[in-house]
Amino acid sequence: MSDAAVQVSGGRDTGAAAVARDEERRLLGPEEIPVSVRYNERDAVTLMCSPGELRELAVGWLFAEGFLQSTGEIMSIGACVEMRIVDVTASPDRWDVVSQRRRTVSSGCGGGTSRHPNEEDLRRVVGTHDPNCSLLRQMLAHATEYKRTGGIHAAALTDGSRVLFQSEDIGRHNAVDKVIGRGLLAGMSFGNTQLMTTGRISSDIVMKAARAGIPVVISLSIATSLAVDLACRAGILLVGRGTQREPIVYR
Fold first, then answer.
1. Active site residue: 49, 109, 133, 232, which one?
2. 109 is catalytic
3. Looking at domain 33-118, which of 3.50.80.10, 3.40.50.300, 3.10.20.10, 3.40.190.10 is its CATH number?
4. What percent of the chain lies above the pLDDT cut of 90?
5. Is 218:243 a contact under the CB 8 Å cutoff?
């Protein structure tokens, strides 16, 4: 084993040992696990994700895909990290309709698939378009895993003046699903919210925002051409390079 290789050892951290173990944690990177989402006793999807906020992730994903219209449809939900499963029972059952939609391979690093509603069904978002990019720095300041590893994504929902919910995940789509799921479970109305993300704004991120009715999306990165087109049609304001002196506003 080379001198640069990481070795993980047990024991109590004291002094130099504590510093060494902190460096080991940084080099090892974020944890990644497969989690199965079951919908009305059917396997809906297996998500490669970070092992936290699994209920929120499942609700956000099911909502984005069209299996759920609101959290009021959820009859029961249980999540188990050890078994790596989230089980959701909901009524009405939309499996037959949603599962027939054509799958699309997303631009996510994991090559994920989605059954988003057709672009022709894109809903028009009504809300406030007054982006506050300064909150992106606040999100980054509290993104502990993002700062520790540099290999994880963060997302947040704000009301334009403060951060309401914030989540982290190895996938930018998962991080967005988690914060939207948190908002849904809290009974939030999204018309005056803003979605922030460390990842690029792709078409599927815009579809998630449109589905929730979020009027503003701010990114540390940039937006793709299709994302800009969809956002214009949906009435969503996109902002790229949100921490720079002159962010990119896509109109």
1. 109
2. yes
3. 3.10.20.10
4. 76
5. no
